[in-house]
Structure formats: C-alpha cells, structure tokens
Amino acid sequence: FVSSASCGIGLPDIANGAMAPSMRSVGSGLPPERLKGRGGICKALKKMRHFLLCVGVVQAFDFASFDPLNAFLYTTVRCPTPTPDRGKCPRGSFFSGGACEPEPRSSKDWSMSPHCAVREHVVHEVTHLKGLLGWPQQIASLVTLVFAGPLIDALGRKPMLLTSVTTHTVSVALIAMACSLDGRAAFVVLLVIAFVFSGGSNAIFNPASNAMVADLSRGNEKLRGDGFVALGIVSQVGLVLAFASMYPVLKMNLTDYRDMWLGFIGLGVFAILLNCFVLRESMVVPEEGETQAKKSAFRRALAEFTTGFRAVWGDRFLRAFIPVNAFVFLSAGSVVKLLTTYEIGVLGYNTAKASVTGVILPVIGVTFTAVASPLIRRCGVYRLMAVVWAITAGGMLLAGLGALSPDLKATELCFWGGLAVFVAGSAISQPCYKTIVSTHVPLAHQGNVFAFTHFCFGGVDLALGLLWPEVFFYAKGANWRRGTMFFVSAGIILVCVVLYIGAWRAMPLPDESSDGESGTDAKSTSGDESDSSVSASEGD
Q1: In terms of Cα–Cα distance, which of 253, 247, 215 is closest to 231?
Q2: What angle do CA 345, 480, 350 make, to 5 degrees?
Q3: How would residue 265 be classed by pLDDT, with cut points 50, 70 and 90?
Q4: pTM
C-alpha cells in the first residue's frame, strides 16, 4: 500500500535449456559499456511480453488500492461536534443557528468523514495512523527479505511472484473484513495484520521481478538496460490505469467502502490466475541440482541471505552506493507517501482531486522512463545517475519553495512544477539503479542481491521514516514550515549526490578496467570483453 514511487516480471526455453553450472558463477556482472550498444525498448517489450503483462496487472491491482485506502481511513475518524468560535467554524463544518453543522459530501470543504466535522483533525489522525502502520509493514518487509532472496534463487521467480500476489490479495481481504468492525481497537489490529501481509508482498515482488528481467536478458547484454526500462514503463502504465479507474469512485465521496474492497478481492483472484497460466518461469537451474535446491530451500534461506551481503560487501563501489541509494530512497519515498496528505491538508483538495496526481505524474514518469535507455547508452549509467539525483532534489526544492508564498495559486504552481521535475528525475533513476547493481553482480546471485538492497532500504525507512509524517510534515502554521518535508528531502539527496560522485570518482568500476586502473576487474572482465565483441557482431 505504500507503493512509494518505487516501480518496479517469462519466456520458455531460455538459453535453449539448462545452463551449465560453471556458466552461472563466472564473472562479476556486466560491464556498463556493454549496455551502450543498440538495444530497444520495443524489443524488450516483445521478448518479455508474458512477464510484463503479468506485471502490469499486478501493479494496477496494487496501485488501485492506494488512494481508496486513504479515503476509506478518512471515513473512520471520529471526533466531537465542534463548537463555534466567534461565529466561525473549523473547515469541514459551517456556522448555522448558533452551532457548527457538518458540510455535506457534495461540498469541497467536506471533512471526508461522516463522523467528524473537523477536516484538519481527520487529516492529522489518518497521517498519524498511517505512520504507525508503516512500522509493522516495514518489519514484515525486512523479515520477508531475509528469506525472499534465497527462495527466489532456489525455488524460482514464478512461485515467489505468485506468493506475492496471493499475499497482497489476503491483505485486501483483511481490510474488507475491517469494514464490518465497530470497535476501534479491533479495527486497528486487523489493519496492522493487513499491512504486515502487504509488507511481505512488496518485499517479494521487487527482487523477484528484477531477477526475472536479468534472467530474460541473459545472453543479450544490450537488452538488460532496456528490460529494466520496459519494466518501469509497464509499472507506470499500471499506475495510470489504476488511478484513472478509481477517480470516479473517489468523486462519489463514499462513506461505506465494503463493496469496493470486495471488488479488489476479485481483481486479486484474477491476477493470481493470470500469473498461474500466463507467466513462465525464467530461471534456469541444472537438472541434477534442481531437486536438491528445492528440498533444501527453506533450510538454507537464512544462511543464503548472507550471499547478497557478501556480493555487495565484496564490491568496493556497491559498499558505498547501496547505503547512499537507501537514503535517496528514504527521502523520495517519504515525500511520495505524504503527497496526498499535503494536497488535502495544505492545498485544500478533496480526495478525488488529490488522486489526479496519480494519473498525471505516471504519464510524466512513463515519458522519462522511456528516454532512460538511450540516455544510459549515450551518457553512461554512472554519470546519468548523479545528474538525475540532482534533478530530483531540484524538483523537491521548487515544490517546497512554493509553500513560502502566501498566494495559493503560486503555491500550487510551484508544487506541480517541482513535482513534475522530481518525477522525471526519479523515473530515470530507477533503471539506472537497477542497471548499476545488476552490472556488478553475477547472474546466479541477482535475486539475493536485489533482496539485500531492498532490505537496506527498508531498514533505513524503518529507522527514520516516521520523521516525515510526525516531525517534518506541517499542514498548518508558518509558510516555511509547510515546505519542511521537501527541504529536508532535497538536502539529503544533494548530500547523497556529493557522496556518490566521490565514490564514483575514487573507486575502480567495471567500465574502467580497460584503462588498467583496476587490476582484478581487468582480469575478470577481459574475457567478457572479447566475448562481447563477438556477440555484438553476431547481434548486428
């Protein structure tokens, strides 16, 4: 349900059968210059069509539950009837006959709850509740990631993706059950359980889908960067479809969401069946080792999680890149989680108007995700990552500066302009991050490493994520305080850019091996380079 701007799925007979064990463990990833050849997003879409179709449906199912979840939580807030203050009533109510009366649902000033006529109180309570629910969700995500990586590489990508979709469907069913509960304590407990299932689902889906892209691009290095771009585009399209379909529902300002959650359960069942019959396994395991791998998967899960740690720790650049990226993820994701709250609490939008963000921004995201692939090939993935992070920080600064203006129209203009710049940078950074990690990691350990990186992201978010809703978000007060969450995030990302550039310039990278600056890397990639020239000529 967080779906933080993070985006983030098979074809038969990969490599014409099982790959030899020796081939699965050779090398340390793909040098980035081998990703600069002629690729093509259309080729990636065609090659990975079954996988991307399933991803699109799953992402639409996931994203469709985000805005209605906020609207549903708003309707559950209760508070006493407000009393007028010198003939004035708080937003969400109006003065009539010496008392404060609730605004009707058709009013733009409706409080969004039939049980509380103070809009500011409704927004504050839900922001606080979602911040608290984020803790069990992140804990569940971190615990799941310990087992996800080894199981993804042992049992296969498809079984784990099916587990992810099924788990998310269960979380939606739990929320549907919560609609029928009257006691607040029981309601919150059921929500906590639902968010635990949701955290586990997200923890499995991201590394499994990334590993499947790596599988499907095996033998064609030029396809890998395009594959990650195609994955981002499909995710953004699913996001657009989800929010566009939910806008009419939110426009109705419902007070009972039980039927909607039942509909989501049906969509979840459809996604499960689609993944069962359309998605094809992409991981290739030697036949003699397949049975043993499956038998010992659970026993080895805890021990094999260290594989991701060792792969990252053994690479000097990744040791610096992953923690820096975790703080960028924290800063960007924390702002994304609060966008709807900011629009409702600061800009005065209703839930339907605030949901327009979920339609407009993915369109921008799709556009810039599409240009990520040629930019990676033209500029180089390492240089491009620094630039797009700086652009992301600039967008946040612009959105925050708008809060300084007393003119609401100027605040809106800066908010939307800054948000567009922020999304453009974030959209390009996602395939860059995945490509960089993938180039440094052997194919056999892709699932473990992606799971470990998400474990790092989740750990940082768990430790510091509550600061944004509890400390840095201000719906009221001085204008500069309303932009605090943007200023803090932009400052953190700019510091991360400086640290990243320092690591990039100081440490030998795979594409520098030809200059003789990395003796070990040069030895490990020299054979790959000769193979690259042959495969490139054959591909041309």
Answers
A1: 215
A2: 15
A3: very high
A4: 0.69
